[in-house]
Amino acid sequence: MENPVIVALDFENGKKAKEFLLSFEGVTPFVKVGMELFYAEGISFLSWLKERKFPVFLDLKLHDIPTTVYKSMKVLGTVGVDMINVHASGGTNMMKAAKEGLLDSGAHQTKLIAVTQLTSTDEKMLSDELLIQQSNLLECVTHYAELAKQAGLDGVVCSAHEVKSIKETCGNSFLTVTPGIRLSNQQVHDQVRISTPHDAALKGVDYMVVGRSITQSANPADVYGKIINEWREVHENNNRSPIA
Ligand code: C5P
């Protein structure tokens, strides 16, 4: 994996996001534009990023009736983002419609992934609030991943803890994108199912989404580098191991 870190641009406007990106001094990290920034700036900001060669994950987590999701994807697909997502809980038909919308827009290269359960959700919330009592979190996330795979999607958003089970069920090439990443000495914030870059690498995660650990740091490029290094160390050790 060339670059496993996706930096979440969780800023209130494009000006702040651009200032932040300037601190990377010529490096163009894979960036994630979520609801806050997209609602503030719209498609023009995505075009600004693409013109400057930033790989972009558009994290709008679509969840609506299949026709609406199809039509929305047909619009968003024209922007040329590298990754985009829907909620798996919208169901198989909705996920298939998302894929069709993307293909009909001509976005054949864009990876379409499904959010399984948010990394801020824990077992108690799953059973007491969402009333999903038939399965535990791991089973639920793995089941959603299986549905996403059957619907023709490229991967899922999940926590690092579920990656092994998802890869066993959906195959190794099915992408896993994991938020909730923290260096061992960092604040957890509102995330529940967290993991360090070291653990994420050991667990076979494909991409780590990192927001506040980088964006709220005094030296973002430095933390970004530390996360990549922690990840690479594990992979280099694995490659050296005679068992790997
Ligand atoms: O600041 P932090 O590293 O917790 O940011 C994580 C990012 O990943 C946020 O932009 C959040 O919206 C996103 N995300 C998540 N859990 C998911 C899907 C997306 O935290 N399941």
Quick synopsis:
The chain is α/β, with parallel strands linked by helices. The chain has helices at residues 14-22, 35-41, 43-51, 66-76, 92-104, 123-128, 137-150, 163-170, 197-203, 212-215, 220-240, and strands at 5-8, 30-34, 56-62, 83-87, 111-115, 155-157, 175-178, 207-210. The mean pLDDT is 93.
User: Mind telling me which CATH architecture this is?
Assistant: Alpha-Beta Barrel
Number of strands: 8
Please tell me the overall pLDDT. Answer: 93
Shape: globular
**CATH domain fold name:** TIM Barrel
Alpha carbon gyration radius = 18 Å
Number of helices: 11
What is the name of the CATH superfamily? Aldolase class I
Strand content: 15-25%
SSE-based structural type: alpha/beta
Weakly predicted, low-confidence segments? none
The small-molecule ligands in this entry are: cytidine-5'-monophosphate
How far is the first residue's CA from the last residue's CA? 16 Å
Determine the fraction of residues in helical runs and give it as a percent range. 40-55%
Q: Tell me the series of helices and strands, N- to C-terminal.
A: EHEHHEHEHEHHEHEHEHH
Largest sheet: 8 strands, parallel, barrel
Strand order of the largest sheet: 1-2-3-4-5-6-7-8
Report the CATH C-level class: Alpha Beta
The tally of structural domains comes to 1
EC number: 4.1.1.23
Enzyme class: lyase
Keywords: Decarboxylase, Lyase, Pyrimidine biosynthesis
Function: Catalyzes the decarboxylation of orotidine 5'-monophosphate (OMP) to uridine 5'-monophosphate (UMP).
